[in-house]
Amino acid sequence: MPRPRLSAEFVTSAVKPADLPRDGRPEIALAGRSNVGKSSLLNALVRTAVARTSSTPGKTRQVNVYRVTPGGGFPFYLIDLPGYGHTSGGAKARAEFDGLTSLYFEHRIGLGSHSLEHGHPPATDPVLRGVVLAIDARHPGLASDVRAWHWLASLGVPHLLMATKIDKLSQAERARLATTCRQEFGQAPLVVSALDGTGLDELWQQLRGLTG
Questions:
Q1: Model-level pTM?
Q2: Cα distances (angstroms) measured from residue 165 to each of 30, 65, 142
Q3: Each residue of 154-204: pLDDT tens digit?
Q4: Quick one: which of 6, 38, 51, 57 is 20 to 30 A from 200 by CA?
């Protein structure tokens, strides 16, 4: 399903739960490390520069909300979450991810990192239809990404693994990417490129399947 004509607009940078949308429209959250290229990918996906990009990793420190309206369809929200751990995994990256995204996840599914750590069952909110975890195709299997993937899996909502910057890999490296991701994440990723458009139509199809 190719991407139709659509409109996209920046709505707000949320710093508290009251800033998040309240109209009940479907939402898809975008998560990933701070230098994975989520903003560039979002702009390429909607074919307009709605998201600010920066050469400085970790620039985003709010929950950025974008409204996307397909031609002839109903609008939904793309939620760009703050990036976690820039160059290394471990406890620091996990703490950043939990802390900087708690505003969104605690409000949308009523479950914070404290509850997850203590094994409390997730509560599902139909507004949040899915989470896309973006990883850098050049660096698959980083500890911070694997931790984030398992954390997201515990939320009880659909989640999609996506590898960005695929244009930078050779065919042999792409094969190794798929193999590594199957070992570390249990599945091969959807591969995409904001530069040459690889995978964007398939990503759009996945998003529309989640938002209805």
A1: 0.84
A2: 16, 23, 16
A3: 888 899 999 999 999 999 999 999 999 999 999 999 999 999 999 999 999
A4: 57
Residue 118, number of CB atoms within 10 A of its CB: 7
Looking at the domain assignment, is residue 122 inside a domain? yes
Among positive and negative, which fits the CA dihedral 118, 122, 128, 132? Answer: positive
pLDDT of residue 100: 58
Tokens of 58: 């970790």
Instruction: For residue 60, count other CB atoms closer than 10 A to its CB.
Output: 20
Q: How far, in Å, CA of 101 to CA of 78, rounded?
A: 14
Query: Has residue 160 been placed in a domain?
Result: yes
Q: In this prediction, what percent of the chain has a pLDDT beyond 90?
A: 53
Domain span holding position 128: 6-211
Tokens 């939402």 appear where?
Answer: 27
Dihedral angle at the C-alpha atoms of 20, 9, 54, 43, nearest 10 degrees?
Answer: 120
4: phi then psi, degrees, rounded to nearest 5: -80, 180
**Whether the Cβ atoms of residue 126 and residue 157 lie closer than 8 Å to each other:** no
> 164 has which bridge partners?
136
**Would you say residue 1 lies in a domain?**
no
Residue 111 Cα distances to 102, 161, 164, 189, angstroms? 8, 22, 28, 27
**Residue 38 in tokens:** 């989520």
In terms of DSSP H, where are the helices of the chain?
A: 38-46, 90-109, 113-117, 143-153, 171-185, 200-211
